[in-house]
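Duplicate of #3305? Posting structure anyway:
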């Protein structure tokens, strides 16, 4: 008998929440159906009813974390009009978001190790980057329409550069924990990006 949609959503949400905690605390390799079962108050059958397999759960965890980061960023961008404000919000929000959501970072790092042979991971990774480039390009296009973008800026290349700044800062923060001050690095990145992109 099919479960009511609200109960299905509740169960899926519980599984994702516990999965996120496991990945954040112990890494992706610790996320197993058995680990979920031992932390949840329901059986393996309930877990596998809602998710095909571990990979299905991994993608749901990633989507959940990314959705939260995206929502916070979108809310912060509301009403912000200058190019500098928008660049600062985007860089700060995404860098801070990935640092504050270690499960998303751990999953992405695991994906990067599998990109050569895992089509689904490659597709998810490419989709994520493409979405971020589109978002950055929209900000730059709005700046161009308002006369705030420097002449000669190639929007697609500049959007990719902004995404690269986020990824580079986050990678350093993950791989060399404590070696950099992400807030200070973001501010330097903002200043460099604004100097290049803003119309004078």
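Output from current build:
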């Amino acid at each position: 008998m099919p479960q009511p949609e609200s109960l299905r959503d509740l169960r899926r949400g519980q599984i994702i929440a516990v999965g996120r905690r496991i990945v954040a605390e112990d890494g992706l390799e610790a996320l197993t159906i058995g680990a979920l079962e031992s932390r949840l108050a329901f059986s393996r059958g309930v877990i596998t009813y809602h998710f095909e397999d571990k990979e299905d759960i991994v993608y749901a965890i990633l989507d959940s974390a990314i959705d939260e980061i995206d929502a916070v960023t979108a809310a912060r961008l509301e009403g912000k009009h200058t190019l500098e404000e928008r660049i600062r919000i985007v860089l700060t929000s995404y860098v801070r978001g990935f640092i504050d959501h270690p499960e998303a970072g751990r999953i992405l790092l695991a994906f990067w190790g599998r990109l050569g042979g895992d089509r689904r991971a490659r597709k998810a990774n490419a989709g994520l980057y493409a979405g971020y480039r589109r978002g950055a390009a929209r900000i730059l296009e709005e700046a161009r329409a308002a006369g705030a973008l420097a002449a000669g800026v190639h929007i697609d290349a500049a959007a990719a550069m902004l995404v690269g700044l986020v990824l580079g800062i986050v990678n350093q923060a993950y791989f060399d924990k404590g070696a950099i001050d992400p807030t200070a690095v973001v501010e330097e990145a903002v200043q460099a990006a604004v100097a290049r992109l803003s119309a004078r």
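Confirmed duplicate; merging threads. The chain has a mean pLDDT of 90. Residues 6 and 184 are 43 Å apart (CA to CA).
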